[in-house]
Amino acid sequence: MADLGYGCKAFTISIIETALRVGGDHLSADTLSDLLSHSKSLLHLPATPLPEVKETLQRLQAYPYRLVVFTKGELQDQENKLRRSGLGKYFSHVEITSDKTEVEFQQLCEHLGILPNELLMVGNSLKSDIAPALTIGAWAIHIPFHVTWQLEHFDDIEHERLQKIEHFSEIINLLK
Question: Which listed residue, of 5, 11, 18, 44, carries a Cα 20 to 30 Å from 75's Cα?
């Protein structure tokens, strides 16, 4: 991750490196071509939003808040995924960073012209979404996902500026 970051391109490079290491001189050009083709196909998989996300974002349009995507990963990968999801139209700003730490959250606030206590981060990762947001003084809503990437494991957090919900649509109830 330190060298290549996250996303399909980094995954593809890792696959090719592994194939070369394992296959060595016996690896054919056809095999490498197939690996590259299959890896590139990941860039075109459907990016289907989770249940309730689209409907909730539509409802949030009526609220006096700016909706912003703040995500980490490879720029083109993330832009492509947002486009394929059809959700981009609900957001006034998209910010993609290589990592989400306190520094990046502070920079996001500065870029948006807001104070940290005016930011509400909604996310599924305690490590990348919730902990750094709380550390800078923002608010957070944690929506756990049934699968957590090993690099995102983090001890549970209890905090006065943190709400935990099970379903994306519950955000509406918290904003009333």
Answer: 18
Distance CA 23, CA 30 (A): 13
The identity of residue 60, as a single letter, is: L
Residue 72's closest CA among 114, 115, 101? 101
DSSP secondary structure, 148-175, as one string: --GGG-------TTEEE-SSTTHHHHHH
Contact 27, 20 (CB under 8 A): yes
Instruction: Tell me the whole-structure pTM to 2 decimals.
Output: 0.85
- Mean per-residue pLDDT for 129-157? 82
Query: Does residue 149 register a pLDDT over 60?
Result: no
Residue 49 gets which letter from DSSP?
Answer: P
Q: Cα(first)–Cα(last) distance of the chain, in Å? A: 40
Rounded Cα distance, 91 and 55, in Å: 14
